[in-house]
Write a structure and sequence with these properties.
This protein is of the alpha/beta class. It has 17 helices and 14 strands. The protein folds into 2 domains: about 180 residues, Periplasmic binding protein-like II (D-Maltodextrin-Binding Protein, domain 2, 3-Layer(aba) Sandwich); about 190 residues, 3-Layer(aba) Sandwich (D-Maltodextrin-Binding Protein, domain 2). The strands form 4 sheets. Strands 1, 2, 3, 6, 13 and 14 form a 6-stranded mixed sheet that branches. A hairpin with a 2-residue loop joins strand 4 and strand 5. Helix 8 crosses helix 9 and helix 16 packs antiparallel against helix 17.
Length: about 425
Amino acid sequence: MKKNLLLMMLILLLGMLAACAPDREEGTKPAEGEKPEATEEPEKPEKLVIWEDLEKSKDWLPAALASFEEEYGIKVEFKELNMADKIRDQLRLDGPAGNAPDVVTLPHDQIGQVVTEGLIQEITVEDSVLKTYSESAINAQMYDGKLFGLPKATETPVLIYNKALMPEAPKTMDELYTFSKDFTKGDNYGFLALWDNFYFAHGPIAGMGGYVFNEKDGAPDREDIGLNNEGAVKGAEFIQKWYAEGLFPKGIIGESGGAAMDGLFNEGKVAAVMNGPWAFQGMKDAGIDIGIAPMPTLPNGEPVKTFMGVKGWHVTEFTENPYWATKLIEHISNDENSKARFQAVSEIPANVALVEDPIIADNEGAKAVAVQSQYAVPMPNIPEMGEVWGPMASALQTLATGKAEPKAALDEAVKSIQANIETSHPAK
């Protein structure tokens, strides 16, 4: 009798423990706010839709999408829209209306804003996928410590020179300065740069020790602005010297400066300029035999720390198929398709394996951009970056025209930036 009673109690106890244990087959329920881990592939959609930049699809995207369909059995439609503004603006309208695509392409400096607006979503990929791309390019796709896209192309300013006027690229800015002092006469200039534009001026300012936002916990810290520190002031003094000594013409200051500089270079009146890969073809079409090199080192021995822009692929918040949309961006940005895209549109991919590929290594422009990118700084992608451009442009133009001293101009710019951030982006 006692044995039977003990046996019944043991069976009852085991049953209670089993009832309290988690269901092994279903898995543990994720905490509130966490996304559940996929244990198997979700159902495949009939099709996905992707938005690519204007005139950037021909000769590569149809083949990449065909190979995706062959591998996964999912058709993909694509549409071209201007990446700089139209894609973001159209997504704001089409998303709530239920007409949004599954995948879009955006410049990385828009990521913070579109994440804040709820237009794109975090993605999860294997470490093996992340290792496909340069660390800086992946960092540019991060916001608030989370990954919101995969890189497709990088760009940063480099030194472009007219081989008929400058047979070899100088290694240092001191050499370039000496060359310019001797060469600049009348309408001829040794070197020109749009240093009244902060996108370009960031190079010498950061190379001398300035910075936009310092890093804190792996993210830009809006409270720590380094655009008027000692290094930034030295960078501004270096910039002002070129204007004060007449090495830069007054005509390249302001909104029309870029067109004026391009015109002078394409007329054969400028030996070298600081410009990006978007300018290569126009110079060649003008009949200039151009050489392309990384920027020369600064007087302090440091590289010119140019801004780097990274174009990426992103999964929209409105897709019903985030798993397959992520698979799509993994596919179209893999080494094979990134190489095909470079051959078609000449935008330099962020894939590390392609840096040593002859298609990049033997291309002077692509190689220069790849090397310069090692020293480049991704533009901060937090919304507060929008408050930096205007005040810095004003400060740099007062330097270029000699209306202010570097320290005073930068102090005023930082004061304006801080005020604008507090007004437009109040702390949470």
